[in-house]
């Protein structure tokens, strides 16, 4: 009788130590994925993520293993057997905690801890430490044979519903990440866009861990002096903008929104996302075919306005003689308040003045019956 019981016990132990293929797996079985640089353990049930947990990982001189493994045994109240030292029995001084999930890599496993400060850092001898309340959850769910995939991914990419690419970056704690990792991750997403590498390089300098949006290269047409631009954080950036536009976090590039804010109504932006092309036009005023230098015009919500201090001299008119919107002369009140006047005020003041407005290129062409001297 004793012999039969012993055989049954030994048979069960052998079965529980078999690899997952021998035990069998189904679509709704548990499996574990660990990303070392992320200090994160993911528990899946079938294809669905069930929970994730923070872990401590191996130090650089005692790194955690990378590859495909499985849980080979489960031990409650384990004894720790340190190399060349006396075994440490279960209790508060045992760094394994109360629960041990051994891997089929001898000496490595997932376990609790007696130093919770260590979770989320590379401090172990290669095992994966968990918070004690977390390892209890994991211990009660998984069985021997559960697959454990251990990865080393410092760059994780994803594409959102707006087809923007995001990178989550983790520190290369073991200094083994190969060059070109970012390029590989972006390429694997099959993104229809193209990264703007110069601005992306600036973002990659940020301290890790961090999450960044990949700047998208755009083509610029129109009136900008620069021809290099990108789209990032729901803003367009370009080089070669006027010095009045504040600098940004990207050396040599400024946001076009700032341009529109500082010179309101003087710029028109047309975005063609299917071609990654941005057309930018500045309000231009031509008098008898000759452009008037400076910010001579702008467009508000319902009308065209002109700067009479630039338009007046071109039309041989004293700026102060051109009525303001309310019919007052420019000598009344603050002069700055009367710099911009509606186009219809100007045409009623200057007889024979005709105009043509091109909405596409934001060009206002003024014509007089006779050219001013």
TrEMBL record:
The keyword Ribonucleoprotein does not apply. Transmembrane segments: none annotated. Pathway: Cell wall biogenesis; peptidoglycan biosynthesis. One of its GO terms (biological process) is peptidoglycan-protein cross-linking. One of its GO terms (cellular component) is extracellular region. The active site is at residues 111, 127. Keywords: Cell shape, Cell wall biogenesis/degradation, Glycosyltransferase, Hydrolase, Peptidoglycan synthesis, Transferase. GO terms for molecular function: glycosyltransferase activity; peptidoglycan L,D-transpeptidase activity. Residues 30-151 form the L,D-TPase catalytic domain. Belongs to the YkuD family. This is L,D-transpeptidase-like protein. It comes from Hydrogenispora ethanolica. The lineage of its organism: Bacteria, Bacillati, Bacillota, Hydrogenispora.
């Amino acid at each position: 009788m004793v012999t039969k019981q012993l055989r049954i016990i030994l048979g069960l132990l052998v079965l529980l130590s078999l690899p997952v293929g021998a035990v069998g797996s189904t679509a709704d079985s548990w499996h574990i994925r660990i990303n070392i640089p992320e200090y994160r353990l993911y528990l899946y049930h079938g294809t669905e993520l069930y929970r994730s947990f923070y872990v401590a990982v191996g130090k650089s001189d005692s790194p955690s293993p990378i590859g495909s493994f499985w849980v080979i045994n489960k031990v409650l109240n384990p004894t720790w057997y340190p190399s060349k030292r006396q075994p440490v029995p279960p209790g508060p001084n045992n760094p394994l905690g109360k629960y041990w999930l051994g891997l089929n890599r001898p000496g490595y496993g997932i376990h609790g801890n007696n130093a919770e400060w260590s979770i989320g850092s590379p401090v172990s001898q290669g095992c994966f430490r968990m918070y004690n309340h977390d390892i209890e959850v994991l211990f009660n769910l998984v069985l021997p044979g559960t697959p454990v995939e251990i990865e080393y991914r410092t760059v994780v990419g994803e594409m959102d519903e707006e087809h923007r690419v995001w990178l989550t970056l983790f520190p290369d704690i073991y200094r083994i990440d190969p060059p070109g990792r970012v390029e590989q991750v972006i390429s694997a997403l099959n993104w229809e866009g193209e990264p703007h590498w110069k601005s992306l390089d600036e973002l990659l300098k940020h301290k890790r861990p961090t999450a960044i949006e990949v700047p998208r290269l755009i083509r610029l047409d129109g009136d900008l002096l620069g021809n290099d631009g990108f789209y990032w954080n729901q803003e367009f950036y370009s080089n070669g903008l006027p010095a009045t536009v504040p600098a940004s976090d990207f050396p040599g590039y400024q946001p076009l929104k700032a341009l529109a804010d500082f010179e309101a109504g003087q710029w028109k932006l047309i975005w063609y996302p299917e071609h990654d092309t941005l057309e930018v036009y500045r309000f231009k005023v031509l008098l008898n075919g000759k452009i008037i230098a400076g910010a001579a015009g702008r467009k508000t919500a319902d009308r065209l306005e002109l700067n009479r201090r630039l338009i007046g001299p071109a039309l041989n008119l004293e700026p102060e003689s051109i009525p303001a919107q309310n019919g007052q002369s420019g000598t009344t009140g603050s002069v700055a308040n009367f710099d911009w006047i509606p186009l219809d005020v100007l045409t009623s003041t200057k007889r024979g003045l005709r105009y043509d407005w091109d909405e596409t290129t934001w060009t206002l062409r003024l014509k007089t019956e006779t050219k001013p001297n």
